[in-house]
Amino acid sequence: MTCSKSSKIAMAVDQRSSPANFLPGLLDQIGGPVEKFIADGAYDGTPTRDLLATRFGEIVEVIIPPPKTAVARPQSVLVPPVRDRHIAEIQTKGRIAWQKSTGYNKRSRAETQIGRWKAVIGPKLKSRHFDNQKAEAKIGVRVLISTLYIMQRSKVLVSSA
Questions:
Q1: Which residues of 118-157 are buried (b: 16+ CB within 10 A; e: fewer)?
Q2: Distances in Å between the alpha carbon of 5 and those of 31, 36, 40, 49?
Q3: Of 32, 25, 1, the residue nearest 11 (C-alpha)
């Protein structure tokens, strides 16, 4: 899940549950408005879209890929909702073109961050108790953000010389 304005949110979650179940807790960590919400297909569905509209208003741009088997609603021919427009664009132009036109391909940056997390922190949390896992995750996020900040600063210094 990616939110615009470079919001940095994190939460330790139980892997047996749907990611959408944890969305309210993740959104609680955002202090301001959100203009764009990008998430993977696990968040696709009316509950996610309704929650985002309730929290941030109808202005939030929701970019969630519909499943390959998704079909547009027949009653939405006159004014199709965003999801149905996404389905139509994927059917006419293809999934890759849809990703580029909506900015969904930027989600790969978040996936790269997860790869960095696993390289720096490790592939799984060490703590056994959930409260300790949450604390461990918060520490890991701070370490990762600090590391990225240092990397960005060194790039600027190297490129300006």
A1: eeebeeebeeeeeeebbebbeebbeebeeeeeeeeeeeee
A2: 11, 9, 18, 19
A3: 25
For 31, the token pair is 């202090």
Crossing angle of helices 82-93 and 95-102, in 10° steps, is: 130
Read off the pLDDT of residues 14-61 as tens digits, 9 standing for 90 and up.
556 666 777 888 888 887 888 888 888 888 888 888 888 888 888 888
pLDDT of residue 6: 45
For the chain, list residues with pLDDT below 50: 2-8, 10-11, 156-161
Which two structure tokens, joined as six digits, stand for 92?
């006419």
